[in-house]
Amino acid sequence: MERMQGEGEVDHLERPSPLTDKERVMIQDSWAKVYENCDDAGVAILVRLFVNFPSSKQYFRDFKHIEEPEELERSAQLRKHAHRVMNAINTLVESLDNSEKVASVLKVVGKAHALRHKVEPVYFKILSGVILEVLGEAFSEVVTVEVAAAWTKLLATVYCRITAVYEEVGWTTLSTSTG
Q1: Of 92, 97, 134, 158, which sits with the fewest C-beta atoms within 10 Å of its C-beta?
Q2: Nearest-CA neighbor of 135 among 118, 152, 156, 112?
Q3: How far is the C-alpha of 1 from the C-alpha of 52, rounded, in Å?
């Protein structure tokens, strides 16, 4: 059975405290190493997401029926989406000292995923966990325990802001209507 982080949890989590200057620098320094391998890291993150949480593939008509991880890795559509995800994260990381830019990016991402793609917000929490897992494994030399804690704080903030955007646009959980 598929694990579902966040199931049954209240999504009105307390917003994490703002990142400190030290945490911002740690995130930006570690991200510079990750972003050197942008495409491979993005593909690794999405493949891990789809293998560990197969229900997340339902939102991707181009590759939702692909079962094999190797085939997912070769999917041009998956690679393209992975590149977009990594570029969005890059914009956030580069803009950590500009809260208005961060809010703007998250508003665009949140609105698109709520209104156009109809993605349940819990998948942002799940994706955050997958990102931390993959970065910790693939970039263990730069993603130390302290750096991982900073990333955890950033991704928790991202999740809180995205869910706030969902609420703003009047999101209602689809799963309650499929009873």
Answers
A1: 97
A2: 152
A3: 10
